[in-house]
Amino acid sequence: MTDAAHPLDAAEAALIDRYWRAANYLSVGQIYLLDNPLLRVPLEAAHIKPRLLGHWGTTPGLNFIYAHLNRVIRARDLDMLYICGPGHGGPGMVANTYLEGSYSEIYPEIAENEAGMKRLFRQFSFPGGIPSHAAPETPGSIHEGGELGYALVHAYGAAFDNPDLVVACVVGDGEAETGPLAASWHGNKFLDPRHDGAVLPILHLNGYKIAGPTIFGRMDDAALRQFFEALGHDPLFVCGDDPLVMHQAMAAAMDQALTAIAAIQAAARAGQAAPAAAPPRWPMIVLRSPKGWTGPKQVDGKRVEGFWRAHQVPIAAARENADHRALLESWMRGYRIEELFDGEGRLLPELRALAPVGGKRMGASLYANGGRRAPLDRPDWRAFEVAVPHPGGAVAEATRAAGAYLAELLRRSEAARNFRVMGPDETASNRLSAVFDVSDRAWMERIEPYDEGLARGGRVMEVLSEHLCQGWLEGYTLTGRHGLFNCYEAFVHIVDSMFNQHAKWLKVSRALDWRRPVPSLTYLLSSHVWRQDHNGFSHQDPGFIDHVVNKKADIVRVYLPPDANCLLRTLDHCLGTHDRINVIVAGKQPAPQWLTAEQAEIHCAAGLGIWHWAGSEQPGEAPDLVLACCGDVPTLETIAAADLLRQHLPDLRVRVVNVVDLMTLQPREEHPHGLTDADFEAIFTRTRPILFAYHGYPWLIHRLTYRRASHANLHVRGFKEEGTTTTPFDMVVRNDLDRYHLAMDAIARVPGLADTAGPARQAFRDALIAHHDYVTTHGEDMPEIRDWSWPYQTAADAGD
């Protein structure tokens, strides 16, 4: 007899319990065993791994949840994605995908028999095997969980614009103490039930972290209810340690939660929800169960189950200690293997029937392997070209031009709903305001009559948390959709660690032939170091680039387009790539424009090139000096320095090189975009001094080029931690990156020039003194700086 509070009949409850026991048995075996997977003989030392690695404490709870999700998937024909926040419960994810058959389909050598089970056990946390976390190698996973805090934000990212998907997201109570996870509970304020899927958060309360209690674990149910209701959730509690009672309670909670989700979506999609009403109160489940549930109660007289000692390996000396080994064997036999597997090690048919079939299995979900991808309908970027009659002949805001391109991209993707723009309340500040002509900001909270730019269903996502922007976009792209994360350059550092984890995921997944490609994650960083002069030192940091280039060469790309047309071409290229992380740094302030769209196409495709119009070298003659630049402001100052040298030292042969793709500076052997040594020397020469004006910290250029034969001739100027609230030109002067310092450095670097260029050097020094006096008196840059433009429209004007 069943009812809403006890939805399982005795036979179904018993089957689910056996399935759970099978997953627990496989999980323990992965942590401990090298051999004897079915315990056909008593355990011996040789059967135990020499190094015991893994995490048991969270795993039985994860297995319990997985078993119950299988039931509702079958009963309701759901598309379900399982995100395992306690990713160190990896043995549970592996065990469950093995039980449902998806693991052996991907890895046939891990067959569903005794030999396959032995390989399953042996490979876990073993050299040449698999990691202990729910890594890319784990079917059904888009979230490793090695670093805690990102499970729920990934879940919401996966649910956006996936209307048929339910994302079950297990949040560990230790993970729930992290800052990113604390902010992630607000994802329910951005989930639109008309267009999006649903997220079912399951707070896994087992009470302890590695070595102490958790905050949520010590809060009583009444306090937890108040907390989550205040966040807009409807919490359902499943608490206890008696398996039969807990199976009934979990089945009831899941039925109630999924019925509520279906009702919310049905009402919204039928147009019954008021458009300006408060967001729906989505259900969540709080599972309170013992840490290390079903494991040993005590080891060596010390509490284990229900305590922090269950966190990793509860029985630590099973190989060398006979008593520990006997305790391990008793623990494993307690799952009653004969009720789980047949004589050949296969899961018994009645248990296998509990799992969904085909793509409904969580380990075989298409959503976890590239998603239901629709191609991104990108417009022709040339349609947004900034007209440049001659180099420096136009002034424009680069990111404003990019905003017009992105607006059209949003318009074209409206039907497919497969593109979103993420940003921490800086989309307009970064001059991307054109996107709001197509889509408002996504907003599900109350909308006041005087609000502007807020709407249900908006595809511009703004929340003042870089963690949420990054995590949403990771979940969105990992499930097959496309997007852009725009941010102030200095504050993207907040997601340094999230970037690390995503880069590692892509690096590993690219090597797995069964993993489908996913759209690249692209950053557009603006309000950058050189034009944060009004905000000051706290907003001036270009170091994210240094952090990015530490990662595997084939994963990362870094671009610093010098003008609007180069930005348009670069942005379009990046949004068409997959399995990459692209970083674009571009200014938002009015600035000279150098290249036409046709020239930008050629220049960006090459990654760098000689700007003959800016130099003064003669055809067929080697230059005396190479002025190189990378970044919009360094490019401006380099071109202005070239002008100064033309005026004061007309016989000096100067070559100007602009770099868009930073990775071209590396040798081809180190990065696929790197130049060969021959090509590098053809551009930069082998013997001439190279003065390089760079957007970021100077030593990165040295690091990228240290193997080049001409490295000894390379002198780099960039940001050297001299920042404050000052004028734009004073910022570059403070860091010796201005045109006058560059021109003086040129005089110092060209052999023999210092003896004859004294008057020129004096003129440049006098200009710097005049600059200092002017800005400290007037609070703005000198007119000759503010109003400077490249004075040569043709080669004849330049005297060539």
From TrEMBL:
Residues 588-790 form the Xylulose 5-phosphate/Fructose 6-phosphate phosphoketolase C-terminal domain. It comes from the Bacteria. Residues 11-372 form the Xylulose 5-phosphate/Fructose 6-phosphate phosphoketolase N-terminal domain. This is Probable phosphoketolase. Its EC number is 4.1.2.-. HAMAP family: Phosphoketolase (MF_01403). Its cofactor is thiamine diphosphate. It comes from Sphingomonas morindae. InterPro entries: Phosphoketolase (IPR023962), THDP-binding (IPR029061), Transketo_C/PFOR_II (IPR009014), Xul5P/Fru6P_PKetolase (IPR005593), Xul5P/Fru6P_PKetolase_C (IPR018969), Xul5P/Fru6P_PKetolase_CS (IPR019790), Xul5P/Fru6P_PKetolase_N (IPR018970), Xul5P/Fru6P_PKetolase_ThDP_BS (IPR019789). Belongs to the XFP family. Keywords: Lyase, Thiamine pyrophosphate. The keyword Lyase applies. Gene3D superfamilies: 3.40.50.920, 3.40.50.970. The keyword Lyase applies.
